[in-house]
Design a protein that fits this description.
By secondary structure, the protein is mainly beta. Helix content is about 5%, strand content about 40%. The strands form two sheets. It has a nine-stranded antiparallel beta sheet with strand order 1-2-5-6-11-7-8-9-10, with no helix packed on it. The protein has a two-stranded antiparallel ribbon with strand order 3-4. The chain is globular.
């Protein structure tokens, strides 16, 4: 990545199975979009409605803390079994405190990584969702910081043909 790319795209992070390009969020605009009156069922179908009268603004829905929220695009496959794939867009909130089981962007010994965090007695485990990658054991001797908590994953669901 060139110096210009780094300046334009913000922070770029890398680990052996995952690369993130991090961007700040812009909530200065509003784009209310129509929202279906009924929930969409993933089980048995229900009669569809042809109209909507409610709107939703994804900025307001997904970003409760605009000053501390960032986006990151995933490159890599260390979290694939959790459904996080290359090209997915992450919504990351830096203001949230880490809780056991959170999906987080972490800084460990000079590198950033995206992992599921498990807190045990003396250490923190950064757990990948792909058996090809090892769990990272973070102990007292490691430099460690939780950079932000992933609150949403936005996926492109249309399959290429």
């Amino acid at each position: 990545m060139s110096e210009t790319d780094s300046h334009i795209h913000g922070l770029s992070t890398y680990d052996a199975g995952l690369s993130l390009h991090i961007y700040s969020s812009d909530v200065t605009t509003s784009l209310p979009l129509p929202m279906a009156m009924e929930s969409v069922r993933a089980g048995f179908p229900s009669p569809a409605q042809d109209y909507t009268d409610r709107q939703i603004d994804l900025n307001k829905e997904l970003i409760p803390h605009p000053a501390t929220t960032f986006y990151a695009r995933v490159v890599g496959d260390s979290m694939r079994d959790e459904g996080i794939e290359e090209g997915d867009l992450l919504v990351i909130d830096k203001s949230l405190e880490l809780q056991d089981g959170d999906l987080a962007v972490c800084f460990v010994d000079g590198d950033f990584t995206l992992k599921r965090v498990s807190i045990v007695a003396d250490e923190v485990l950064l757990v990948p969702s792909n058996p090809a990658y090892p769990t990272i054991h973070v102990g007292k001797g490691n430099e460690f910081m939780v950079w932000g908590i992933v609150t949403y994953t936005i996926k492109h669901n249309r399959r290429l043909r």
